[in-house]
Amino acid sequence: MLYYEGELLVAINIPYISTTFAIEKPPWVKCNVKLTQNGLEIKSLDGSFIIPFKSIELINRSLPPSVINCIQFTSRYSFYIVIDHKKNATIGYDDILFTTLLAGNQSEICKLRYFLMSILGLQADPLFKNLKVEEVRLLSLLDDNIRNVEQLTAIFDENKDFLYRTYNALVSKSLVDERAMLTPISVAIINKLKGIDEIKKSNEPDLNNNINETVKMWDDFDKPMIIDEKNKVYLKYGESSLSGTIYTEDLWRCLPLTEIKETKIEDLKECGIGLVMLTTYDTNIFLRAYDDSVIFTLKGLVDKKEDIQIRILYCLFLGIAEERCILNILDITAHNFLEQYHQMEKMGLVSNMVISNRGLDLIHRMIKGYCTLLMLYKDVSIHRLEQMKIENSKRIVIDKLKQKHDKLKNFHFVTP
Fold first, then answer.
1. What is the DSSP string of 237-268?
2. pLDDT of residue 138
3. What is the Cα–Cα distance from 59 to 39, expressed in whole angstroms?
4. Rounded to the nearest 5 degrees, what angle is found at the Cα of 18, between the Cα atoms of 111 and 123?
5. In a domain, 205, yes or no
6. pLDDT digits (tens, 9 = 90+) for 161-198
7. Residue 154: which domain range?
8. Residues 176 and 144 in one domain
9. Are strands 240-247 and 95-104 parallel, antiparallel or unpaired?
10. What is residue 202's DSSP assignment?
11. By C-alpha distance, which of 266, 257, 261 is closest to 286?
12. Sheet holding 284-288, edge to edge
């Protein structure tokens, strides 16, 4: 599976020790970089090189200012990724640690870094690797709302000085604040340690034990599936302006999605987030959605650099279910669409032009990735996504009930 592909400047196989103190001009080469299930594939005119996931030790460890300045000055980019990875030694049997640098614009670097960290997990996070056992223990206790000093001291072998040193270390790493509350970074660390997904997976009902409860869903099944709210839209060109409200299902009918050339997500602080769009006709469009998931998916939908399968998912998420409309918005052929759609079906992302729970989980991960790019550490609303998950569970129940009903209907009693 292709997670990421882009053009970046790359400096390959720099000795690890060279980047710990100082570095000469890195050997930058413009490369095509792909992130697949096999690892990080780097191709240039001189050849290709792959860094397997199992050989990667750390992502973005701290560098001295002199090295950072050299990377940014020689590459002409402010954003970069540092990958420390093992490589077989030419002499002896031990692996040698090397460093590969990647530099590029903000969106490309942040997107690649997000996917790398999502795949590799905490073991490649330099912050997590530098955490001591007692620091992880204190984080876990604070996460369980154990903040009483006497209780914590007892757990830390009655050593109050040790407890305070551990707490101050967490504060210095921005993992807790002065009120002993966890920061978003530490919450993410604890959740990953616990294996908690932010979306609670809905359990499929046991039809044999709850048949009476599930039958009640028949009455509601014919009602509209997504109870949607209106989104506020404001268009402006020069002195002309237009404002109004649009249901999510109608956004694609009312907005010129094929003419949007630039998008930007704005954090409105008190009011949540909004999406600013600029069309090829220099018309500014501002969207304030009732649900943040609409903002993120609409932005991804109009981004021509986004993976085509992700964009198809976004179409279905925003209520665009007619094939001809999807072809027009994404500017793809019917053959290409069917090819991509069949692949998505095999991966369990869609079925009958409806997004499955696995597809919704992928959308949620993409939303979290956007939040990482934008450094948005507050909670974003995903009501539409959660409602779709509920409807999927309902559909599973109804299908099972229909199957049972059909079996009973076709069953014939034999009289003696």
1. ETTEEEEEEEEGGGHHHHS-GGGEEEEEEEE-
2. 85
3. 14
4. 45
5. no
6. 888 888 888 888 778 877 788 876 677 677 666 554 43
7. 131-194
8. yes
9. unpaired
10. P
11. 266
12. 240-247, 230-237, 284-288, 273-279, 260-267
